Amino acid sequence: MPVEHADAVEEMLPPARLVPLAVQHVLVMYAGAVAVPLIIGRALGLGPEEVAFLISADLFACGLATLIQSAGFPGVGIRLPVMMGVTFAAVGPMLSMAATPVIGLLGIYGSVIGGGVFGLLVAPFVSRLLPLFPPVVTGTIILVIGISLMRVGINWAGGGQPTLTKMIDGVPAAVPNPNYAQAGGLGIALLVLLTILALIRWGRGFLANVAVLLGIVAGSVLAAFLGLMHLDKVAAAPWFAPVLPFHFGWPQFHLVPIATMCVVMIVVMIESTGMFLALGEITGRPVSQKDLARGLRADGLGTLLGGIFNTFPYTSFSQNVGLVGVTGVRSRYVTVAGGVIMLALGLAPKMAALVEAVPQVVLGGAGLVMFGMVAATGARILTAVDFRGQPKNQFVVAIAVGFGMIPLVAPTFFRNLPHALHPLLESGILLASIVAVVLNAFFNGVGSTEQAGRDASAAAAAAEHV
Asked: How many domains does the chain have?
């Protein structure tokens, strides 16, 4: 049995454990990773082959960005177990660009490249905001991240979105999804959930570590038996297809789209700060200002490479943060291996099609566990907060969580405000972050970087012992 490394983040696992754990991370993020290129490709009216290429390019760039973030390079990469994927914060602005003929796909890529360069330049300045994130703020943000993700997990368990957008007489219209919340799909999601819980309860060692993977395998077998998992696309997909830069042509640079994408990058960086702090707590390695700067710089570099390799802005995927909490495996080399697998999937469409064939209802059973673990991590961090001696901290948590729920419970709440503000207002995580930071500064003032580090260490200790 291998001896555990003194620093669990730096532990190099044997291949027999490393590969299944990495595959588990890939399966968890795959549905989210391919969603954005599907949405943008269809909005642009691209043909099936071009949309398929967008997906392959996205998987390839996911792998590159993950390696940059997890493996790290001098001055770039937080070197924690992070999986990178396309951010949904950019979908709205990119759909608006796609609807403007003058901008189109090449204009989107120009804005993504501009946003990536902007992210690289401002990362050191954003990292200086770390003193604004004591445990009362960090715990609240991570709690909201987990609660926000539960909507994704629940819809996965239901088989997608409750409504679908279809073109009726040339006009997009919302219609009910006939496959949503069918008894068979809910049964599969329940089987996955029960399998994971049973393995966590009675499994030991490595078996418990790969509980999510084994739950997904069990759900996939049942889905195939019920005729809900189809492999025809796997047979038709080629074994190898290269992903070349600027496949669709040279990018075009327009001032307003670039400025819009820079705003998106600010949203991404604030959300990433919450993810990194969550991982720091889960892994027992508190994030310093220098760590944060390297991580945010990797977001910018990943986005820059995304624009070059025909895809979109990148950020850390929060569902994989939840998976680290579920498995207890903190080694960053697991996600490094996951990045290599994503690279291979991008270059091997047949393998990508096999992973894509896993029904969403299967992922839904796993999502309920993982996303709940993110929320539980936020709750554990809040146990380090002094609510009795500083009762005003209760207002920080209560009001920030309330603001974070607005986009979830009332998606059209801000529809009458200027459209330019929607990227900021449609992110519950961003709203909760801003409100928590402002209220904490109002009630408690702003501490030093050193104090923030001591607070983070205290929160990590509390999380270890709860």
From this structure: 1
